[in-house]
């Protein structure tokens, strides 16, 4: 297994801290909830930038991303402005998106099937993030109205209008799609992608499966 493989889900071990933030709303747990998003996306950036590298690790790219994470952490601890985290994280996401689109242009010239799979996973991730972001902002802007609505709805229906919950579901799906995308792209770049196929759970959630010998 390559270096990037086991680190592809680096921001998920902080689930306990995320729960603590949502239960306490204390600043220290907000940091524990939000900063791993920056750290995890640095791994995605590394994978996107290094997809063409056959062997070895680019220590300079790794050090640059480590430095970026350290600077964001130190600044965020001092200024305590959520918008700073949003900009720092948004910049990382933009880098991943742009590099992913450039990879797609390259793959389209050589492997139509792989290109199609990459495009589907790309838009699944973008769509999941986009929809969850919209719902999250609706929840922020119309919080009072939504709370009033939930108060008059039957108890089983109230959770359906906890729109912030959809943010977590959507971003989880988006992160997962991005991880599978990077893994599949790496197989394309290594020239071994024909040994694998993309399968989908419930026709939506992608995963990589080794081809049967008869395929």
Describe the protein:
The structure is a single chain. 23% of the residues are buried. The model is unreliable at 3-14 (pLDDT under 50). Helices cover 69% and strands 6% of the residues. It is built from 7 helices and 2 strands. Strands 1-2 form a two-stranded antiparallel sheet. The two termini are 24 Å apart. α1 (15-24) packs antiparallel against α2 (27-49), α2 runs antiparallel to α3 and α5 runs antiparallel to α7. It is mainly alpha-helical. The protein is flat and about 55 Å long. A hairpin with a 3-residue loop joins β1 (196-201) and β2 (205-210).
Q: What order do the helices and strands come in, and which of them pair?
A:
Blueprint: H1 15-24, H2 27-49, H3 59-79, H4 82-108, H5 112-141, H6 143-152, H7 163-190, E1 196-201, E2 205-210
Helix pairs in contact: 1-2, 2-3, 2-4, 4-5, 5-7
How is this structure best summarized?
The protein has 7 helices and 2 strands.
Unreliable parts = 3-14
Measured on Cα atoms, how large is the radius of gyration?
A: 19 Å
The count of strands amounts to 2
Percent of residues in helices: 55-70%
Sheet/helix structural class: mainly alpha
Strand percentage, roughly? 5-15%
The mean pLDDT is: 86
Pattern of helices and strands: HHHHHHHEE
Q: State the distance separating the first and last CA atoms.
A: 24 Å
Question: Given the C-alpha coordinates, what overall shape results?
Answer: flat
| Tally of helical runs | 7
Sequence of strands across the biggest β-sheet: 1-2
* Major sheet attributes: 2 strands, antiparallel
